[in-house]
Design a protein that fits this description.
The strands form two sheets. Strands 1-2 form a two-stranded antiparallel ribbon. A two-stranded antiparallel ribbon has the order 3-4. The chain has a domain of about 100 residues: Winged helix-like DNA-binding domain superfamily/Winged helix DNA-binding domain (Arc Repressor Mutant, subunit A), CATH 1.10.10. α5 crosses α6. By secondary structure, the protein is an alpha+beta fold.
Amino acid sequence: MSNKARGFKIKIGPQGLEIEGDHKKVTEEFKRLQKEGLGELNVLVTQPLVEESKDKGLEKKETKSEKDKIGATLSDLAVRDICTSEKEWILLYAWWLTEKEGKNTFGWKDIKDKYSDSGRWTKSRGSNITTNIKGCVTKVWFTKLKEDTYALTEFGRKEALGITERSSKPGSVIKKRKTKSKMQKKEKGDK
């Protein structure tokens, strides 16, 4: 393959990244970006999008009824059992860290702490956190800044808000209590 000048551009909102150079340099840089993410640039890329929404008067204001829906604590959310998967729980914990605690970035330990705070920590869930965080990156809920450092995307924030608005798991059915025991039904059928 020739060593002709190559390049590519990545544009997210108003921010962009362009790499030009010989084929080898561009390929190496692209592979590094795939592996490590955009690093600190990710924070810079998402920041203007937030500022734009504020400039347009779209700044989100939390009302009392909305706060009541979200719950006062992570334990309240755990009791409501509104997530359908562990990936959704991790998204909810990341949203909590970002929106409620004001953190711009988070890692494995932060998510583990939120599991403990909500009373949902188990050894099994702990051993799957890394896999589930990668799943959140794949779903574009998180962006990877560097090894074990992530940021919540705007898409992830919207998904998390949708989860908090649920009253129960989608598709959950309340089972009716049986009034007669099996024995009573059997005796009635025998008579």
